[in-house]
Amino acid sequence: MSQPLPRAVAVLGATGSIGASALDVIARHPQRLRASVLSAGSQVDALVALCAKFRPDHAVIADGGRFRQLQAGLQDAGLATQAHAGDEALEALAASEACDTVVAAIVGAAGLSSTLAAVRAGKRLLLANKESLVLAGELLTRAADAAGAEIIPIDSEHNAIFQCLRSRQAQHDVRRIVLTASGGPFRGHSRNALAGVTPEQAVAHPKWSMGPKISVDSATLMNKGLELIEAHHLFRVGGDRLSVLVHPQSLVHSLVEFVDGSTLAQMGLPDMRTSLAVGLGWPERIESGVAGLDLLAQGRLDFEAPDTGVFPCLRLAWQAMAAGGTAPAVLNAANEVAVSAFLQGQIGFLSIPALVEDALAAQPAAPAESLDALLAADAQARRLTEQAIAGHRSRA
Ligand code: NAD
Ligand code: MG
């Protein structure tokens, strides 16, 4: 049965990089798509400005202390948009009649509760928030299956794989899935050269323009590690059928190799609007504003193996995926805390993998029987990593 048009889309994390790309695609299709719910973490002014442009029914600020400010901002702008605040309001709206599609574009584990609420309510989920899959992948995909919710991956690699498979199910005819990685801004650097890199250098990604956290993850290669775990859950494949290939031009977004020797790849310019248009239009193709690929102008495509000696985060993620249970939750939580400390100038770049490794060693993988068990492992890893950083600063 086709959905009534226009589709009502909730953009969670609307003020971020993915949020902006999603709204750009939505604005190109007024007959087909409508932004009905917009949310932000704490930036009230940016959220009100988006409401003035997109006229959603609801706006949510996650920071509960900013409700009045949001309400006043919407009122002053003469908007009929209803103001809400806090995580519970976000979860309720993601599950409500206010939307039929949810773009999960909040950064970090903070995105899990609204993402879960959306799939439990059977929404179409356009999932950019990879951390929620790393933290609770099995729970999230099981909840989606139980509710008949469709998950369309937005991360460019997983969106590429989804396009090659035309589903989220890698059947027995899939021999191997290859995730491509740009290698980030420090590709080819020695470990010594990485010791002194600054947050400004780390967020200056050569190919993609993204939020600060994922930009640092790309520089450490933790992003690819998180994506391995993401692929494992999304496509239900074990580590033996997954691999990573560095491809600095970022034009081949990933590849699927089948048992007959065929390899399908999805290619395109590095612009997240393509993935978002796939999700927003699926199963139809819609305009995204992204130009086609001119391979003659690009000239060449290069490939190399990732260097896990210089970038241990990728190795740590493999280990966490193999260990399973609570290990990926610990990996993700320690990484979030370490990246935030690095961005604030509290620790050096090489401390990121060191802190993640320590957290994994301190919390051996336990069975992840429930959401509570996962959230407890996440909280414990955050505490231990924060303590380690505080100790490091008091010694410095
Ligand atoms: P961003 O930092 O640009 O935006 C994050 C958004 O989340 C903002 O709207 C912010 O207000 C909101 N937010 C932050 N903390 C919050 C909280 N505690 N509660 C509620 N909302 C909160 O990040 P981004 O680059 O757009 O990335 C968003 C997600 O998409 C991440 O999980 C990232 O890994 C994934 N992703 C991004 C890209 C990209 O190109 N930017 C590509 C693939 C995947
Ligand atoms: Mg990606």
Automatic annotation (TrEMBL):
- Which Gene3D superfamilies is this protein grouped with? 1.10.1740.10, NAD(P)-binding Rossmann-like Domain
Where do the annotations place NADPH binding? 15-18, 41, 129, 131, 211
Which GO biological process annotations does it have?
A: isopentenyl diphosphate biosynthetic process, methylerythritol 4-phosphate pathway involved in terpenoid biosynthetic process
Any one Pfam family here would be: DXP_reductoisom
Q: Which residues bind Mn(2+)?
A: 155, 157, 227
Domain DXP reductoisomerase C-terminal, by residue range, is 267-383
Tell me which residues bind 1-deoxy-D-xylulose 5-phosphate: 130, 156-157, 182, 205, 218, 223-224, 227
Biological or metabolic pathway of the protein: Isoprenoid biosynthesis; isopentenyl diphosphate biosynthesis via DXP pathway; isopentenyl diphosphate from 1-deoxy-D-xylulose 5-phosphate: step 1/6
Class of this enzyme = oxidoreductase
| UniProt keyword annotation of NADP present | yes
Per the UniProt entry, the Enzyme Commission number(s) are 1.1.1.267
UniProt KW keywords = Isomerase, Isoprene biosynthesis, Magnesium, Manganese, Metal-binding, NADP, Oxidoreductase
GO MF annotation terms: 1-deoxy-D-xylulose-5-phosphate reductoisomerase activity; isomerase activity; manganese ion binding; NADPH binding
Q: Which cofactor does it need?
A: Mg(2+); Mn(2+)
InterPro entries assigned to the protein according to its UniProt record, in alphabetical order: DXP_reductoisomerase, DXP_reductoisomerase_C, DXP_reductoisomerase_N, DXPR_C, DXPR_C_sf, NAD(P)-bd_dom_sf
Swiss-Prot/TrEMBL catalytic activity:
2-C-methyl-D-erythritol 4-phosphate + NADP(+) = 1-deoxy-D-xylulose 5-phosphate + NADPH + H(+)
Span of domain 1-deoxy-D-xylulose 5-phosphate reductoisomerase C-terminal: 151-235
Q: Where is the 1-deoxy-D-xylulose 5-phosphate reductoisomerase N-terminal domain?
A: 9-137
Which family does the record assign? Belongs to the DXR family.
The record, for HAMAP family, names:
DXP_reductoisom
> NCBIfam families under this entry?
Dxr (TIGR00243)
Functional description taken from the UniProt entry: Catalyzes the NADPH-dependent rearrangement and reduction of 1-deoxy-D-xylulose-5-phosphate (DXP) to 2-C-methyl-D-erythritol 4-phosphate (MEP).
Q: What is this protein called?
A: 1-deoxy-D-xylulose 5-phosphate reductoisomerase
The uppermost taxa in this organism's lineage are: Bacteria, Pseudomonadati, Pseudomonadota, Gammaproteobacteria, Lysobacterales
